[in-house]
């Protein structure tokens, strides 16, 4: 086992009687350091139980971690940026979807109009054919007589 890993064999129970969750510090002074803490914060009626799991950092390690956090290597900041990018992409895609749905509605309306026009043209053509056949029949009848 490496020096930086810690074997957690026990689970802490706070004064409230809850099993404590393993949490990770996101503060500049203890970035990435794990600890057990009460399920509810003290402000929310919890008991405020707290115990570090990981040892404190050496000054050189602390300085290195601080620089990484400041330079944007903080995984939470990266994830927040990624979430923001994805939300912007989602909003853009929603806008495009709405535009495409509006275009589709216009095209469907035009399609219905074209179909009605075509049906009307077919009716007119059928009338002409029927009139022509009637005329041919009448001519044929009068030629026979």
Q: Can you give keywords for this protein?
A:
145 residues; mainly alpha; 3 strands; rod-shaped; transmembrane; zinc; GRF-type domain-containing protein; Znf_GRF; metal-binding
Would you mind describing this structure in some detail?
57% of the residues lie in helices and 8% in strands. It is mainly alpha-helical and 145 residues long. It has a domain at 9-57. The protein has a 3-stranded antiparallel beta sheet, with no helix packed on it. The protein is rod-shaped.
Strand content: 5-15%
State the helix count.
Answer: 2
- Sheet with most strands: strand arrangement: 1-2-3
| Rounded Rg | 39 Å
Mean pLDDT: 83
Q: N-to-C SSE series?
A: EEEHH
Q: How much helicity do the residues have?
A: 55-70%
Please tell me what the overall shape is.
rod-shaped
The count of strands amounts to 3
Task: Give the biggest sheet.
Answer: 3 strands, antiparallel
What is this entry, summarized?
Keywords: Coiled coil, Membrane, Metal-binding, Transmembrane, Transmembrane helix, Zinc, Zinc-finger. With 145 residues, the chain is mainly alpha-helical.
What is the topology?
Blueprint: E1 21-24, E2 34-37, E3 50-52, H1 59-70, H2 75-144
Antiparallel strand pairs: 1-2, 2-3
């Amino acid at each position: 086992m490496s020096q930086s890993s810690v074997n957690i064999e026990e689970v802490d129970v706070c004064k409230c009687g809850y099993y404590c969750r393993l949490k990770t510090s996101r503060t500049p002074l203890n970035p990435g350091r794990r600890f057990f803490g009460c399920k509810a914060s003290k402000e929310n009626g919890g008991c405020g139980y707290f115990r570090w799991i990981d040892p404190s950092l050496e000054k050189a390690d602390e300085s290195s971690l601080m620089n990484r956090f400041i330079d944007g290597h903080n995984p939470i900041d990266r994830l927040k940026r990624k979430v923001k990018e994805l939300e912007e992409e989602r909003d853009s895609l929603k806008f495009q979807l709405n535009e495409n749905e509006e275009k589709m509605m216009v095209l469907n309306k035009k399609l219905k109009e074209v179909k009605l026009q075509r049906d009307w043209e077919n009716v007119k053509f059928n009338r002409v054919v029927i009139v022509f056949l009637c005329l041919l029949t009448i001519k044929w009848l009068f030629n026979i007589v």
